[in-house]
Amino acid sequence: MRTAFKLAAGIAMSAIAAVSQAQIKPSVIYDMGGKFDRSFNQASYTGAEAFKQETGINYTDFEITNEGQREQVMLRFAQRGFSPIVVAGFQQAPIVEKVARQFPKVHFVLIDSVVDLPNVRSVVFKEHEGSFLVGALAAMKSKTEAVGFIGGMDIPLIRKFGCGYEQGAKYIDKDTKVFANMTGATPSAWNDPTKGGELAKAQFDNGVDVIFAAAGGTGVGVYQAAVDADKYAIGVDSNQNYLHPGHMLTSMVKRVDLITKKAFEDEMNGTFTSGLQVVGLKEGDISWALDEHNKDLLSKEDIKRVNDIRDAIIAGDIKVHNWEDTQSCVY
Amino acid sequence: MTAPAIELKTINKRFGPVWANRDINLRVMPGTVHGIVGENGAGKSTLMSILYGFYIADDGQTLVNGQELTIQNSQQAITAGIGMVHQHFMLVEPFTVLENVMLGMEGQGLLSRARGKARKALNDIASRYGLNIDPDAIVGDLPVGLQQRVEILKALYRGAKILILDEPTSVLTPQEAGQLFEILESLRSQGVTILLITHKLREIMAITNHVSVMRAGQMVAHRDTVKTNPEELAELMVGRKVLLTVDKEPARPGENRMTVDKIGYVDSRGVKCLKDISFSLRAGEILGVAGVTGNGQTELMKVLSGALSPTSGSVKLETRSGVQVLKVGEWPDAGQMRDYSIGHVPEDRLQQGVVKSFDASENAILGYHNKPEYGQPLLNPEKVVKATREMMDAYDVRPQLPSMKTANFSGGNQQKLVLAREMMKEPDILLIGQPTRGVDIGAIEFIHRNMIEARDKGAAVLLVSVELDEILSLSDRIIVMNDGAITGEVVASETNETELGVLMTSSADGDEPKLQKHGLQKEPEKEKEEVVV
Amino acid sequence: MSQLAAVESPRWVRIGLIPLLQLVLALAVSSLVVLMIGEDPIRAFKIMIQGAISTEFGGLSNTLYYTTNFIFTGLAVAVASHAGLFNIGGEGQAYVGGLAVAIVCLALDSTLNVWLIAPLVVVGCAAFGAFWGVIPGYLQAKRGSHIVVTTIMFNFIAMAFMSYALVVWISPLGGNSTDSRYWAADAVLPKWHEMASSFGMNASFSLLNPVLLLALACCVLVWVLIWRTRLGYAIRTVGSNPHAATYAGINANRIIIITMAISGALAGMMAVNEVYAAQGRLILNFTSGFGFMGIAVALMGRNHPFGIVLASLLFGALYQGGTELQFEISSISPQMVLVIQGLVVFFTGALDRLVREPVESLFQRRAIVAANASTGVAK
Known about the structure:
The complex is a heterotrimer.
Chain A: H1 2-21, E1 27-30, H2 40-55, E2 60-63, H3 67-79, E3 85-88, H4 93-102, E4 108-111, E5 120-125, H5 127-141, E6 146-153, H6 156-172, E7 177-184, H7 193-205, E8 210-214, H8 219-229, E9 232-237, E10 248-254, H9 256-269, E11 275-279, E12 286-288, H10 300-315, H11 323-326
Parallel strand pairs in A: 1-2, 1-3, 3-4, 4-5, 5-11, 6-7, 6-8, 8-9, 9-10
Antiparallel strand pairs in A: 10-12
Chain B: E1 6-15, E2 18-28, E3 33-38, H1 44-51, E4 59-64, E5 67-69, H2 74-79, E6 82-85, H3 97-102, H4 111-129, H5 144-157, E7 162-166, H6 174-189, E8 193-198, H7 201-207, E9 210-215, E10 218-224, H8 230-238, E11 256-266, E12 272-282, E13 286-290, H9 297-305, E14 312-319, E15 322-327, H10 334-339, E16 342-345, H11 349-353, H12 360-363, H13 381-394, H14 411-423, E17 429-433, H15 441-456, E18 460-464, H16 468-474, E19 477-482, E20 485-491, H17 497-505, H18 522-532
Parallel strand pairs in B: 3-8, 3-9, 6-7, 7-8, 13-18, 13-19, 16-17, 17-18
Antiparallel strand pairs in B: 1-2, 1-4, 4-5, 9-10, 11-12, 11-14, 14-15, 19-20
Helix pairs in contact in B: 14-15
Chain C: H1 2-6, H2 11-36, H3 41-53, H4 59-82, H5 90-108, H6 114-143, H7 147-170, H8 192-198, H9 211-228, H10 230-240, H11 242-247, H12 252-268, H13 270-278, H14 290-300, H15 305-328, H16 334-350, H17 352-375
């Protein structure tokens, strides 16, 4: 018994020692859903892992499982001197605001939401740019001149996706018909693959042959419907091309992993900056996915044309309207 | 001399400090009917459970046909040729007779082949012992007497040469009981050994060759039946002189307390459980309701006690709380009925009369729990316990522990507690159902005396019982029910069991008597209807 | 058998030793799981225990914060089960209780101070929870719809409804957020660490707040209700033997409805702790399964308020200790913590008899031996 305690104490000591040797103590707090959610949380995890691989610097992470933990855990991270604390998801914003106030020396990185404090870096994405790009690709590949959009919950963020997508499609051919549906008005719309599949089928029946799903877990149903109907689907957030090679035209990717890694690197190099960062195609934090799973679907011309459009957006030659600016999709 | 079929030597079994069986010796000779009598808790059931392998004796020897055995479970008992017919049947009601008999003995391979073999074996047994029954009848449809026959067949099919019957007549009509005894006679003549556990001394006298008496976990006497009599057996069981007959003065009926006028009740399935029941009940008399279980007595008691609203008819009450005319649609609940000075000892003590998981003191106020004397505004445990002590004292409830869990009291003591609760309030009307069901002989005497006492103090008593002896000895007048209707009214002192038996099976409108229309349980009844459809 | 039951094992065995053994068994099996992922179980349990009782990091007070939730939902399950009803709708009832907090606070937090608003919140939560419990109660009593089925369905309805309410009416950001705004600071009960610092003491941050006292008061009230009031008497009669209830003139249907109202109200009051005091705002899915854990709490607490307090403390400690464990050992995932919590529920609840029967019979045998010795009977 006693030796076991000694052993335990020894392990504990060495763990602490390992942490204190590192120059910085970066950390990630994942939202509910866990770090292997194949989406947002997993992207932050991937970024943190990449940083660890490159630098050998360890990081600490925590998966929130109930509301009671949020504040407690964030406080404990701050108290223990972890910095930066990367936090993904708008649910966390109110807590970040509270804790960041108490620990002005600790750096926070909040993804997808904005907290205006001197030690918080808020990162939001120009999803409309990426949506424009995949919308253009969808219209290029559509034989029926009709493309579809399926959103998750009907909120401004998703409207922003839909509006960008529509603009992209119409940019290729202004006669392209764009069908858009939202899965629901409540958060359950993020995880309703059955309904996603139904909506996708309905759109395919209406002549659509490419659908972009910005609907979280609901998307799985949309992709499956595309496989069943032998049509195309477009993934979102992370690269989902691998889910159904041959049917996933591409994915619109938000590089949360890059944001996380960058935050760690900035902290390491002493170049951490706070404030709002709006990132998009130009920063490379929004992109479209091209890999071995979808390269056979696209010709060289297709790829070039999409990249040209991307460059044009970055250069400002194409202006993509942001739904949130006017709360409408009039451009 | 042949070896005894069963021989038990110094069997001991303890449950904690309680000796359930103590130094039990028993010899049962083959081909005889051996009776075992004793009060509740005397240890009869424990002893039989040891014999059948439900319990294992702490020490002692068990010899079956001269061979020493340790019976660890019922399978071993069956292998040793011991069969048991439980008081509560262990039958699968939706199955046929044949399927029930086969159950657990299907063997391997195809069921159809096993069924063919079983059918043949069953027919052989049935014809040998005169146990005729349709092997394809659904057990749930059968009257209780035939269900019991299925249990016996089951035991014989498993090769039983020694048959234990636990209170076999408690659920039977007098006619069915007669048939059972014929079967037992026939089994005995075929060399089957029968152990009969009962508390009805009449049955012991009628059929057994030998009788053993148990008291407080011990065997107190073994007798040849021809050399003893009920009085001696009763005294041996209780340990003191017991009056088997009830001494009572002739009734002096007073004014009408309850006038029942054409009460009818149709249950949710459309079965007419009560058909135009009319009678009157007067102060200072005991009105007995005779009949085979399930012929409307239960519903009648429920209606009169407020547990059930009738669908037609009315009742007029004239008690110390005034005159009430109860009509359909505004039927009072049981609480209001108590306010109208009606006490109710329910037929089924465990189902209705007490909550087993409650302390005795909690059960002592059941139905009267709203009375302010038990504390205001909260219930005052001290007051409740004090009242309970008084009840326990007056009705000799043992042990006198108000805080003991009710389930841990013996049946007789639970019943005495219920009687105390209902009778000590001295209500004008007393509805008493099966007052001595599962109650020791000693307690029976006590209960009967108290009922007569209540009558003599002016209570109007309505007594429902399946024990004809009880009805005959306690009642002043008797009404007989069959199939939900009253088939006759007689004066107790001028009738006998035979006449009642005839009335119990005749119908109100003069039709041929029907075989027990209502089952004991509700469920089989339902299936019966489905089968008919 | 009745004779067996007559010899009960000592009280300390039944309510002390046996739960303890069950806990030890659960932890023993858990340590195998911890070993399997290559961690040291002794260290893990040390972290868990310290995390749950240490005052340094607010571990103890957070344990008590979780305890508060469990007491409410555990009592809710216990009260219903005394009437023979299995209320597994605590989750939904608590969720709807949260709506009451939101309504009261959003409407009045700028005008009323904490002394006025807190009682309103308590009453509101109880009323909303009761309403959500009464509907299944009514359906059970009058329509015979089984309470287990209806309460589950009502959990789903509550979830869908609350999502909708949050997004459409309550959230200030119209969908981009699923939380309400924070209630005004002077309308909310202070948390323990805030109170401590105003007294000059230093306490670490935790979500513990005075609602714990309300929970304890509810325990006392439930005890009085069940064992001292006539309503409680009727509830227990209906629960143990409905036939006897009819016989006693107790209207079982009425009792079922009333019981579900009380049960729902208790579950609803969980929102007072969580939504009003601890979080200070209404959050999507704030119930986080506390409603369901109430079943385990009531089971382990044997439906007795005192037992429920103990069980709630244990589960609170498991939650808080689990958080610490996850925090300290990164290879232990939340799922692992869930497994450990699950094992405790498994051994103390579902497998109750595994330990109970052998231990009780051991003590019964000992009692018999003692009785033998005292009566001087030779074997």
